Protein 1
Amino acid sequence: MASYAEPQIPVIDVTSLRTRAIDAEHAVAREIGNACRGIGFFYITGHGIAPERLAGVFRLSQEFFKAPASVKNQTRFSGPADNRGFISLGGETLEPGKPPDLKEAFNIGLELAADDPDLLAKRPFRARNLWPDVPQFRATMLDYFDCVWALGVTLHRAFALDLGLDLAFFDDKFKKPMATLRLLHYPPIDRPSQPGQLGAGVHTDYGNVTLLATDTTGGLMVRDRSGQWLDAPVIPDAFICNIGDCLMRWTNDIYVSTPHKVVNPPGRDRYSIAFFLDPDPDARVECLPTCTDATRPIKYSPVSAADFLRSRLEPTYAT
């Protein structure tokens, strides 16, 4: 299994986390913790999400991005306050001071009932999803959203074990998360129209953990702790996961959010499906009790998860 990936990006079988096999669970937590302290990226296998389910998500994502502009523009991006809908090519700049990214995206958040009190009160990041006129799209995306949300919560059991916390420490912080399922399309571009333009500029992710599924095209690159850029190879039926800024803040920089980028491969479309798991809006992000001592003072003031996410999203869409 390890032969698929660079040694700096480990491949971890998380079957024991899903089956709650206690002894093996601790061993997997140590593996994940080592990756989070090191390069901040790791692949997971044994995640329990069937290839057929993921293939359906990719198929409908491609169908959406190939649709006429009239279809896509019906779901035009609602802005960073809601963080839902279609973002056209060049509509996002992940790397400040650089040209806009050469990608288009579609964001789906937590689906809420029409009478949900958070929705009616217009709480932060509580909004209606915007659904395109593509058959089976809504049902397929919401089914996948729920599957990968549960998987992300399972990964937090490993984080808790590794950090010396109660196994269920994070459970009540992901009841109604500000999670985003993001469909991504990087069109084939032989040469950027502007110097330094990339499919996705150099950035770190904003939330706790990202679970990424990719097609076979490649293009993701990760910067290791020495500053070297590594290709993140495609591993069939594996997710590539990485730590985001929110969890790095929670752990007082014990876990690291690692810069990464996407280079559009020439002559080929690239599709990927990202799931960004941010906590509930009112979750208090503050230094965990096991992540500070006399040699590691607290670096960050407490902040609500909603305020933290807003501080990261707004510059991405600034004009």
Protein 2
Amino acid sequence: MKITQEVRNKQVTLKLEGNFTYTQRKPFQEALKAVGSNQVEEIVIDLSQVTFLDSAALGLLMISHRQLQAEKRTLSLAYPQPTVRQIIELANLHKTIPVIEAQVSSMVKKSA
């Protein structure tokens, strides 16, 4: 899994690419820890390029959310693909961690 970081004011977006599974927990934790040292108030996990999440990844997202809440910071999940969104919903994670949906207007092209 590839992780890239984009900083905007007090918000950091971590863009994940590939499968987010148990074997990827350490790189994810390290990326999260690296942004934790900044004056960041909000962390957005961009899931638009993630094709699969396993139960370990779901647990890690929940633990990260709780840790950030304790630090008075927020965690959001952004733009999950349909399969990933279904996994998040089956685990009821969307009831705890906010999910940002893609804006439909930016994805729909007007026909000429």
